[in-house]
Amino acid sequence: MLVGVPREIFPGERRVALVPAVIPNLKKAGLDVILEAGAGADAGYPDAEYTAKGATLAPDRAEVFAKADVVLQVLCYGSNDETGQADLPLLRRGQVLIGFLRPLGDVHTVQEIAAAGVTSFSVELMPRTTRAQSMDALSSMGTICGYKAVLLAADTLPRLFPMLTTAAGTITPARVLVMGVGVAGLQAIATARRLGALVSAYDLRPAVKEQVQSLGGRFVELAIEAKDAQDAGGYAKAQDESFYQRQRELLGQVVAQQDVVITAAVIPGKRSPILVTKEMVAAMAPGSVIVDLAAERGGNCELTRMEEKVVEHGVTILGSINLASAVPYHASQMYAKNLTNFLLNMVKDGQLNLNMEDEIVRSTLVTRDGEIVNPRIREFFSLPALVTQ
Ligand SMILES: NC(=O)c1ccc[n+]([C@@H]2O[C@H](COP(=O)([O-])OP(=O)(O)OC[C@H]3O[C@@H](n4cnc5c(N)ncnc54)[C@H](O)[C@@H]3O)[C@@H](O)[C@H]2O)c1
Predict the structure, then answer these.
(1) Residue 164 carries which DSSP code?
(2) What is the model's pLDDT at position 248?
(3) 347: left (phi > 0), else alpha (psi -120 to 50), else beta?
(4) Do 348 and 340 form a contact (C-beta atoms < 8 A)?
(5) CA dist., res. 320 & res. 145, Å (int)
(6) What whole-number distance in Å separates Cα of residue 380 and Cα of residue 370?
(7) Residue 50, C-beta contacts closer than 8 angstroms, at least 6 positions apart
(8) What DSSP state is assigned to residue 276?
(9) Could you tell me which residues are beta bridge partners of residue 4?
(10) Cα(116)–Cα(121) distance, rounded to whole angstroms?
(11) pTM for this one?
(12) Which tens digits make up the pLDDT trace of 213-224?
């Protein structure tokens, strides 16, 4: 079976779906790799490193799609809404496609992928189970985004992060608030602590309190309680507007005291909740920085504009998206490991064996034989349930 890795074509994307180090694992399981020439270059993996591990090179993209049984990408059509459509005519019936597909984004896009006849898997739909942990690309990318968000904030803030006692006086440490303590938020806390900041964090799931404290952060407790803060899959659930309103009132005082706010509160498939209003921004000291990791889904700050740097009342709001691509070497390494574990879970005797009893396969499978077969996606888009599953 041949696994194909095309170059990423989303503008500015620097990651690659497989790195040379995982090729021997795939080969051991009977899988060969064909790579579009130059696919790993921007991530720091030259072609020669892939061929040294036994991959073959294809001079152009079309050849990868034409030959591969399984195509691995970082941003497939769906998550690449700018240039991804160009891949549709290259896909072949029965071919397997694995990557970020943004399956709860636009139903027409998912339908187009289904119509191409591919068996597609979306890594965003990975269940939150212990067995799936090593395949969880969202967590890998979240880790990188959380880290990078703090570096961006430190680079933009006109203050130092650590406390310093110098001959020229004492420098007080920066105060950093992390809102939304998922994987990205936890890494943001850890990174800000390493830089010496005073870190506090808030999440509507009280269960994260201990995790925040174990990283040396202070957990902000508000006098409101969320109903069913997370779903069975471990993802955050949306709350009603009265909850969000009360939450914003209470958070206002906390936000006003911060030099840096990093927001990472995301609800899958939904617009991000507004946690920082424009009034809250106005109450922050000039020079403060907000990095909004939820920018792609509308942002947790009312003033966030995707991919833009907004300055209001002297406060800088960074709506960066795709931050994982800014650390392409390790983002690709982690992603490649996740994909390899995911793929090998479905391979038996060198062949793909889709075991629908396996929750990991069932949850991530999006399209097959021309149909959107994933019940969660069908329900999300109010499509009628399929008779045969
Ligand atoms: N395989 C596994 O077991 C596995 C894998 C990944 C994550 N997890 C766990 O799942 C949890 C969620 O992680 P994630 O990175 O996917 O999170 P996420 O990106 O889905 O959401 C980010 C965080 O924002 C919070 N949030 C949402 N709305 C909020 C609001 N209005 N106010 C404050 N906070 C809000 C959520 O509770 C969540 O903690 C974590 O506990 C994580 O450790 C488990």
Answers:
(1) E
(2) 83
(3) beta
(4) no
(5) 10
(6) 19
(7) 20, 23, 33, 35, 40, 57
(8) B
(9) 34, 71
(10) 14
(11) 0.94
(12) 999 999 998 887
Of 389, 385, 367, the C-alpha closest to 93 is: 367
The pLDDT of residue 368 is 97
- Compute, in angstroms, the gap from residue 65 CA to the centroid of ligand 1: 35
Q: Which letter does DSSP use for residue 86 in this model? A: G
Query: Hey, which residues are catalytic here?
Result: 128, 133, 136, 139, 235
Q: How far apart are CA 93 and CA 32, in angstroms?
A: 20
Residue 144, C-beta contacts closer than 8 angstroms, at least 6 positions apart = 187, 323, 324, 327, 330, 331, 334
Contact, 78 vs 101, CB < 8 A?
yes
**Which residue, among 120, 127, 99, 118, has the nearest Cα to 358 in the 3D structure?**
127
- Is the distance from CB of 267 to CB of 182 less than 8 angstroms? no
Which residues approach ligand 1 with their CB closer than 6 A? 128-130, 132-133, 136, 139, 142, 179-185, 202-205, 229, 234-236, 264-267, 273, 275
Q: CA–CA separation, 38 vs 32, rounded Å?
A: 18
